[in-house]
C-alpha cells in the first residue's frame, strides 16, 4: 500500500506572483504528516501539485523513485494512488452520492453502467466513515457535515495509497471526528501515507507523527510532532510569538435588546426558540451538527420557511421575508458555506464586496471608482492579502476569502450580524485577526451572534452561549458556568 514521495526544489508562479520558492522534502511511507502554515503559505498549492491539479513551474515531484511526467493531471496522480480530499467541496449537487463517488471512475458491466455494484461499494465506503445514508440520496439534500463525509468516502473508494486531507474535521461533530481518527489509524496500519492539513493544532498534536511547516512559500521547519508544542507550531506558522489569541472580554452590556426573537419555529429543524441580544453583546450558539443552529437563522432571514415566531428589531415588530429584507432592517448573515453561499468566487473582489449595498454605488449608474475606493479601504481594514485588487475571489486563499466574506456582510452597515462558523478553515493567525475584529464590532455597538462548532472559540469570545439540541434551545450559559464541560453536557444531553 505504501508510496514514497519526494519534492525536489519545487517552485510555482501564477503570472508574476510566485507562491512556492524551491520546496524540497520527502514523505516517509505509512506516516501521518501534519502540513501547517497560514492561509497563503503555499501548502494547498503544493498539495494540488502532488495531486496533479497543478504542475510545478520548476522542480520535480518524484513518486516511487520515478520523476512524474508533466501534464498528467489528477487522473494520473490517482492512478499512482494519490488522492486529495478538497477543503472546499468538489461534489455535483444534482447527482446522487453513488454517482459522485464513482464520477469518472464508473463501474461497467459490458457496455452498461453497473449501478448496483456502485451503490454497494458506495454503501461500504459510507459505512467506513460512519455515515448511514442511502447512496441514491442526491448531494443537494445533504447538510455540510454529510458532504464532508461523502468527500472522504469517495477518496476511500479509490484505494488511496497517499491520502491528502485538507481541513477534514471543520464541519464534523466530536463523534464523527473520533470515527475519522480511528479510520486514519486503520489506514496508517495498512501502510497508507496521510497528509493532514488542519488549523486545529490539538488534532495535529494528537494524530500526526511529524509536522512540516510552511511560511510564505518556503519550508521553514520539519520536526517530530512529539518534540514541538502547539504554541511552538503556531509561532512557526506566523514567524513570531503569537500571544493573546482572544481579546480581553468586555463587560456584558446592559440596556434593552436590539433584537428579540420569540417562539421561532423552522419545520423539521428548530422549534419554539427564543433569544435576545443587546448592542455590544456577543451571543454564541453551540450544538452538535444537526442541532438546528444554522437552519434556525436561515429561517429567521427568510432562507427557509418558518411556521411560527415573532421578531423585533429596535423594539419594532418586523417581517423578514428574505435576506434583502433583513439587510434593510439592519440584520446581515455570514453563511458557513463560504464557497457555495458566502461569495461569488468567480466574480472579482469589488462586486463581491459591494453586492449587498449596490444602491450606495448606483445613482442611477454604477460608480466603479467609488466601489474601487471602498475595496481599497476594506482590504486595509480587514487585512485581506492580495497581490492585486483586480483578481477573482477564487484566487484568494481560504482565510482571505473569509475576510472578504466578512467585509461583504458588514459593508451595508448592519446593527446585528450573524456569523456562522466565522473561522472555519482559516489558520491560527487569521483566527486571531477575526476574533479581534468581532470584539471591535461589539465595541462599536453591534449585536454579534456567533455560531460555532469550536467550543473554546465560543468561550473565549462570547458573553453568553445558547446551546441547542435536536432543534430546541436547551439553556443559555454565562460566566462562571460557561465552560467546555457544561457546553458538552447540554449539547449531548448527558452528564
Supply Rg: 23 Å
Overall geometry: globular
Range of helix content: 25-40%
Spatial gap, N to C terminus: 43 Å
**Count of strand segments:** 22
User: How many structural domains can be distinguished in the coordinates?
Assistant: 2
Tell me the fraction of residues in β-strands, as a range: 25-35%
The CATH architecture designation of the largest domain is 3-Layer(aba) Sandwich
Figure out the total of helices: 17
Give the helix/strand layout.
Layout: E1 5-14, E2 17-27, E3 32-36, H1 43-50, E4 58-63, E5 66-67, H2 73-79, E6 82-85, H3 97-101, E7 108-109, E8 112-113, H4 115-128, H5 144-157, E9 162-166, H6 174-189, E10 193-197, H7 201-207, E11 210-215, E12 218-224, H8 230-238, E13 257-266, E14 270-278, E15 282-286, H9 293-300, E16 308-313, E17 316-317, H10 323-328, E18 331-334, H11 338-342, H12 349-354, H13 368-382, H14 398-410, E19 416-420, H15 428-443, E20 447-451, H16 455-461, E21 464-469, E22 472-478, H17 484-492
Parallel strand pairs: 3-10, 3-11, 6-9, 9-10, 15-20, 15-21, 18-19, 19-20
Antiparallel strand pairs: 1-2, 1-4, 4-5, 7-8, 11-12, 13-14, 13-16, 16-17, 21-22
Helix pairs in contact: 4-5
Describe the structure.
- The protein has two domains: 234 residues, P-loop containing nucleotide triphosphate hydrolases (Rossmann fold), CATH 3.40.50.300; 236 residues, P-loop containing nucleotide triphosphate hydrolases (Rossmann fold, 3-Layer(aba) Sandwich).
- The protein contains 17 helices and 22 strands.
- The strands form five sheets. A six-stranded mixed sheet has the order 6-9-10-3-11-12, sandwiched between helices. A six-stranded mixed sheet has the order 18-19-20-15-21-22, sandwiched between helices. A four-stranded antiparallel sheet has the order 2-1-4-5, with helices on one face.
- Helix 4 crosses helix 5.
- The protein is globular.
- The model has no long low-confidence stretch (mean pLDDT 88).
Amino acid at each position: 500500500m505504501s508510496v514514497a514521495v519526494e519534492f525536489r526544489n519545487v517552485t510555482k508562479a501564477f503570472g508574476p506572483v510566485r507562491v512556492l520558492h524551491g520546496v524540497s522534502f520527502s514523505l516517509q511511507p505509512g506516516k501521518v504528516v501534519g502540513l501547517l502554515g497560514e492561509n497563503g503559505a503555499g501548502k494547498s498549492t503544493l498539495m494540488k501539485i502532488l495531486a496533479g491539479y497543478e504542475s510545478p513551474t520548476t522542480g520535480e515531484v518524484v513518486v516511487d523513485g520515478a520523476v512524474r511526467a508533466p501534464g498528467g493531471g489528477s487522473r494520473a496522480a490517482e492512478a499512482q494512488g494519490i488522492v486529495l480530499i478538497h477543503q472546499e467541496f468538489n461534489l455535483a449537487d444534482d447527482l446522487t452520492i453513488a454517482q459522485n463517488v464513482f464520477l469518472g471512475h464508473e463501474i461497467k458491466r459490458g457496455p452498461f453502467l453497473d449501478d448496483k455494484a456502485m451503490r454497494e461499494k458506495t454503501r461500504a465506503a459510507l459505512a467506513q466513515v460512519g455515515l448511514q445514508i442511502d447512496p441514491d440520496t442526491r448531494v443537494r439534500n445533504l447538510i455540510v457535515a454529510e458532504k464532508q463525509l461523502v468527500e472522504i468516502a469517495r477518496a476511500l473508494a479509490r484505494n488511496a495509497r497517499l491520502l491528502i486531507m485538507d481541513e477534514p474535521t471543520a464541519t464534523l461533530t466530536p463523534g464523527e471526528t473520533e470515527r475519522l481518527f480511528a479510520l486514519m489509524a486503520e489506514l496508517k496500519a495498512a501502510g497508507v501515507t496521510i497528509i493532514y492539513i488542519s488549523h486545529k493544532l490539538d488534532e495535529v498534536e494528537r494524530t500526526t507523527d511529524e509536522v512540516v511547516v510552511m511560511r510564505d512559500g518556503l519550508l521553514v521547519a520539519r520536526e517530530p510532532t512529539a518534540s514541538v508544542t502547539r504554541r511552538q507550531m503556531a509561532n512557526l506558522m506566523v514567524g513570531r510569538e503569537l500571544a493573546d489569541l482572544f481579546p480581553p472580554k468586555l463587560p456584558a452590556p446592559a440596556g434593552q435588546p436590539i433584537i428579540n426573537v420569540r417562539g421561532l419555529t423552522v419545520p423539521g429543524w428548530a422549534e419554539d426558540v427564543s433569544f435576545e441580544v443587546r448592542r455590544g453583546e456577543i451571543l454564541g450558539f453551540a450544538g452538535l451538527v444537526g442541532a438546528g443552529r444554522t437552519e434556525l437563522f436561515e429561517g429567521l432571514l427568510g432562507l427557509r420557511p418558518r411556521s411560527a415566531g415573532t421578531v423585533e428589531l429596535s423594539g419594532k415588530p418586523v417581517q423578514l421575508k428574505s435576506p434583502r429584507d433583513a439587510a434593510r432592517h439592519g440584520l446581515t448573515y455570514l453563511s458557513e458555506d463560504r464557497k457555495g453561499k458566502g461569495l461569488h468566487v468567480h466574480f472579482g473582489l469589488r462586486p463581491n464586496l459591494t453586492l449587498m449595498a449596490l444602491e450606495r454605488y448606483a445613482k442611477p449608474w454604477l460608480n466603479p471608482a467609488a466601489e474601487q475606493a471602498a475595496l481599497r479601504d476594506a482590504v486595509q481594514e480587514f487585512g485581506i492579502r492580495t497581490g492585486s485588487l483586480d483578481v477573482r475571489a477564487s484566487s484568494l486563499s481560504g482565510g482571505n476569502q473569509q475576510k472578504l466574506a466578512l467585509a461583504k456582510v458588514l459593508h451595508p452597515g448592519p446593527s446585528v450580524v450573524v456569523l456562522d462558523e466565522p473561522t472555519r478553515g482559516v489558520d491560527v493567525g487569521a483566527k486571531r485577526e477575526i476574533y479581534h475584529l468581532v470584539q471591535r464590532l461589539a465595541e462599536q455597538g453591534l449585536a454579534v451572534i456567533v455560531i460555532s462548532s469550536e467550543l473554546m472559540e465560543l468561550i473565549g469570545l462570547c458573553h453568553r452561549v445558547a446551546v441547542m439540541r435536536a432543534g430546541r434551545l436547551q439553556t443559555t450559559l454565562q460566566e462562571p458556568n460557561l465552560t467546555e464541560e457544561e457546553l458538552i453536557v447540554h449539547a449531548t444531553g448527558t452528564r
